[in-house]
Design a protein that fits this description.
CATH superfamily of one domain: Enolase-like C-terminal domain
Number of strands: 18
Number of helices: 12
Strand content: 15-25%
Bound molecules: D-gluconic acid, magnesium ion
Order of helices and strands: EEEHHHHEHEEHEHEHEHEHEHEEEEEHEE
Length: about 400
């Protein structure tokens, strides 16, 4: 269906760059010079989404009306026939976000105004404290408290294990994908389960009860182990315990939920409402972590969030540094509006990312503030991006220390 002049998509291109880590960006232009930017980054599988967009989606966009966001979403979702999945849903998200950016720019408004306007002045965020041992994690928490964080995710190395995912080696962020091939780490659940309660006991002893504390088990536990951990952490009153079991099997959470009142969060690897449906409907979780970039863009993510609201589940969007500033900008725009916003993950991007992405959001004293410029508030410098070509990079994988069995990392 062709568009009237003034809102026709005349160009769309995919940009893959690595200003510190790899990002995929979709850029859409209309015939009257409005440009929209969408994030299409799928950490460790970046080029799969770039090809999906370049080879299969971009040709379908040219000549279409940029304002028909819903219709284009349906075209790309239903039209693909092969539904869902991270690659497809990330590609659709990039188109969707770029079009919302364009629509808001046409309106001359920040995106949250198009969704219904503000529900709050600022957004509570949580920072990451990690250390090789409990003492280092306590020091990291003290630093974040200095910066004003009221909510902190705490991880630490486990005695008897070497470096594990989720814990930095040198005070830097723990997760920038490093090797040209994934490195292998060693894991032992018994040592981990013994250790984690001692970490939270030490945190409460030193910092008292006021701080909101979070912890990420990163999909490594069985339902029964997760239930044990949830129970043992109850005295420390966590804000949430994240990704306790592998995300594939939502029924697992029934066992965990019936055994512990520690609040549960899950969903950073989800890409569709159908991944979250049972968890939300049965109120097996307190926070849904799906992100706009991996869950079909604003159009689909909004359906997840509004469905969650019916069951008193709040949002806690994934916000690791492998999601580009565009996704953070969008999370803050929708978070400013969404009645059941819960909290936003905040891991500041590292330099030189600001040479490519300019964002109008800001962090101040434990909260983030979305910007007021038209659109989602993040623009991309395509010329600067050329200085940072794609570099294949992976996060580590995990094997059981005991016998080398492949495990969740
Ligand atoms: C989190 C996450 C991330 C992911 C990463 C994978 O809670 O922020 O678990 O660190 O592991 O985004 O690409
Ligand atoms: Mg996580």
């Amino acid at each position: 269906m062709n568009a009237k002049p003034g809102s026709t998509i005349i160009a769309a291109r995919v940009l893959v760059c690595c200003p510190g880590r790899n990002f995929v960006t979709l850029i859409i232009q209309t015939d009257d010079g409005v440009t929209g930017y969408g994030d299409a980054t799928l950490n460790g599988r970046e080029r799969a989404v770039a090809s999906y967009l370049q080879d299969h989606v971009v040709p379908m966009l040219i000549g279409r009306d940029a304002h028909r966001i819903e219709d284009l979403w349906q075209l790309l979702y239903r039209g693909a026939y092969w539904r869902r999945g991270p690659v497809t849903m990330t590609a659709i998200a990039a188109v969707d976000v770029a079009l919302w950016d364009i629509k808001a720019k046409y309106a001359g408004m920040p995106l949250y105004q198009l969704l219904g306007g503000r529900s709050r002045d600022r957004l509570l965020v949580y920072g990451h404290a990690t250390g090789r041992d409990v003492e280092e994690t306590l020091d990291a928490i003290a630093e974040l408290k200095e910066q004003g964080y009221e909510a902190i995710r705490a991880q630490s190395g486990v005695p008897g294990l070497g470096k594990i995912y989720g814990v930095s080696e040198s005070g830097q962020a723990y997760e920038p994908a490093a090797g040209d091939l994934p490195t292998e780490e060693a894991w032992d659940t018994t040592s981990y389960l013994r250790h984690v309660p001692t970490l939270f006991e030490a945190i409460r002893l030193r910092f008292g009860d006021a701080l909101h504390l979070l912890h990420d088990a990163h999909h490594r536990l069985s339902p029964n182990e997760a239930a044990q951990l949830g129970r043992r952490l109850e005295p420390y009153q966590l804000f949430w315990l994240e990704d306790v079991t592998p995300a594939d099997n939502p029924e697992s959470l029934r066992r965990v939920r019936s055994q512990t009142t520690t609040p549960l969060a899950i969903g950073e690897v989800f890409n569709s409402l159908f991944d979250c449906k049972l968890l939300i409907q049965e109120q097996l979780i307190d926070y849904i972590r799906a992100s706009i970039v991996h869950a079909g863009g604003i159009t689909h993510w909004r359906r997840i969030a509004e469905f969650a609201a019916i069951y008193q589940v709040r949002t806690g969007c994934h916000g690791a540094t492998d999601l580009s500033p565009i996704t953070m900008g969008c999370a803050l725009q929708v978070g400013a509006w969404l009645p059941n916003f819960g909290i936003q993950e905040h891991m500041p991007h590292q330099t030189p990312i600001e040479e490519v992405f300019t964002a109008d959001y800001r962090f101040e004293s434990g909260y983030m503030y979305c910007g007021e410029s038209p659109g989602h508030g993040v623009v991309v410098d395509e010329e600067a991006a050329k200085r940072f070509p794609y570099k294949r990079a992976y996060l580590p994988v995990n094997r059981l220390q005991r016998d080398g069995t492949m495990w969740d990392w």
